[in-house]
TrEMBL record:
Record carries keyword Transmembrane helix: yes
TM stretches of this protein: 22-47, 59-82, 103-122, 142-163, 175-197, 203-224, 266-286, 292-314, 326-346, 366-383, 421-443
Main localization of the protein described in the UniProt heading: membrane
Compartments, as annotated in UniProt: Cell membrane
Lineage top rank: taxon: Bacteria
Record protein name field: Multidrug-efflux transporter
Membrane topology: Multi-pass membrane protein
Record InterPro entries: MATE_fam, MATE_MdtK, MdtK-like
Species of origin: Pontibacter actiniarum
């Protein structure tokens, strides 16, 4: 079977050590990819911080809105990743290919829609953040440049997810390395001016980001076309409402989960903005430093989603549980170490972005709190990946809604503003939310009530006997 060339091969008699190696095989490229992905934001904030804290706040506020776009794009990616992994685990190659292309169609549609929203509503959306007029003007300019061509963001999510679902985490890693080096060099040239490039400030940062995403999309298409499992078929570009329904059914709760989180984030960002521009800038800088730890968690979550998804597709539930536990504990260990680094080196990291002692102190305090809850964040990320692999995206959505609105947002206001704990109170509130949600997911996982296994759609409704590449019997075998 051609899928076997990309599908992760797991020996029937695999030992714990063998499984740990397999998890690392998939997680390491994803960790590296995440590192370079986060490097885009890190570089932007670092370069822009040399211009001023108002510019840092503008980009931070814009990214809070863009995160809502990412929620939709990420949901399509989650659905594609899981469905492709399930199909390949069941040796249904053409079904995996078809779903992958349908996800690309869906991503293009939503990328165009979000671009239109940005074109007409950039300033009104940013106004909701309660920004000062100066910050609002800077943010609007940045938002339009980055947000109107959203289709490239959307395509990168879908194309990368398709590759990961097939077990190929190396190609997205390579693409991430290339585009981030490109972004850093072009960003420096356009922000500060270099050689033939004029000094463009925040606009230059935005243009560099867009250019890197266009390049990333082209490179991912190249890798897709080299894949024997995922290479495009012309007859699969027609909209298939059956597969679109599958993607929507699985992706909608995942989108809802992130949208709920981002909506709550916008609300409590407003609380932080009320504490002052410098406080909000410190919050954004601390977040950009903390994301270095996130990269490990998301890498292991990716590995868990792929492995659990393929094992569930093949009907090996016990193996799915085993890989989830291994991936989760490995992530907890690694993020625990990274948490210690955040705790002890937070102020030093803050000093890279600002020379203001008060801002540096606030960054350091926030990262001390963040370092303490990194192991819980590791469990939350990896277990969420397992739930998604088991087609259970609804429960994480409900849990996120409760955590964001009943715990995080309420506590941010109470601890940060009412009690006057400022940014430290904000990060304590975030930590309490993470610990609570991780505990609930772990409890349900331990009880074995974390899966939502549905009957696959009938083969006949998904076949294309008119295809010149396969007969009806081939279609039945592959679907």
């Amino acid at each position: 079977m051609e899928a076997d060339k990309e599908l992760v091969q797991i020996p029937v008699t695999a030992t714990l050590r063998d499984k740990m190696k397999i998890v690392l095989l998939l997680a390491f490229p994803a960790v590296v990819e995440n590192f370079f992905q986060t490097f885009i934001g890190f570089v932007d904030v670092y370069f822009v911080s040399k211009i001023g804290l108002a510019e840092v706040s503008a980009i931070g506020a814009t990214n809070a809105i863009l995160a809502i776009y990412f929620a939709v794009f990420m949901a399509i990616g989650v659905a594609a990743n899981v469905r492709v992994a399930n199909a390949l685990g069941a040796k249904q190659v053409e079904r995996a290919r078809h779903i992958a292309q349908q996800a690309i169609i869906l991503s293009i549609l939503f990328g165009i829609l979000t671009g239109i929203v940005t074109l007409f509503f950039a300033r009104p959306l940013l106004t909701l953040m309660g920004l000062e007029e100066q910050v609002l003007d800077i943010g609007e300019n940045y938002f339009r440049v980055v947000g109107i061509p959203s289709v490239f963001m959307s395509l990168m999510f879908a194309l990368s997810a398709n590759l990961r679902g097939s077990g190929n985490t190396r190609a997205p890693m390579k693409v991430s390395i290339i585009i981030n080096i490109f972004h850093a060099l072009l960003g420096y040239a356009l922000i500060f001016g270099f050689w033939i490039f004029p000094e463009m400030g925040v606009t230059g940062a935005a243009l560099a980001t867009v250019a890197s995403r266009v390049l990333g999309t082209l490179l991912l298409v190249y890798y897709i076309q080299r894949s024997e499992v995922l290479a495009f078929r012309k007859d699969f570009w027609s909209v298939d409402w059956g597969h679109q329904k599958e993607l929507a059914t699985l992706g909608s709760p995942a989108a809802g989960e992130v949208l709920i989180m981002r909506a709550g984030q916008i609300v409590y960002f407003g609380f932080i903005v009320s504490l002052g521009t410098n406080v909000f800038a410190a919050h954004q800088i601390a977040g950009n430093v903390e994301v270095i730890s996130y990269m490990a968690g998301y890498g292991f979550a990716t590995a868990v989603t792929i492995l659990a998804g393929q094992q569930i597709g093949a009907g090996r539930i016990e193996e799915a549980v085993s890989f989830t536990k291994i991936g989760a504990w490995m992530a907890v260990g690694i993020m625990g170490v990274l948490g210690l680094l955040l705790f002890f080196l937070g102020e030093w990291a803050g000093s890279l972005f600002s020379q203001d002692p008060e801002v540096i102190s606030k960054i350091g305090n926030a990262l001390k709190v963040s370092g303490a809850f990194q192991p819980f964040l590791a469990a939350l990320l990896t277990l969420t990946g397992a739930y998604q692999a088991a087609n259970n995206t609804k429960f994480p959505m409900y849990l996120t809604a409760a955590g964001m609105w009943a715990i995080r947002t309420v506590l941010v206001y109470y601890l940060g503003i009412t009690l006057g704990w400022g940014l430290t109170g904000v990060w304590i509130a975030i930590g309490i939310d993470i610990v609570t949600r991780a505990g609930v997911l772990a409890y349900k996982f331990a009880k074995g009530t974390w899966m939502n296994l549905e009957k696959e759609p009938e083969v006949e409704s998904q076949c294309h006997p008119q295809s010149t590449k396969e007969t009806m019997s081939d279609c039945v075998n592959n679907y």
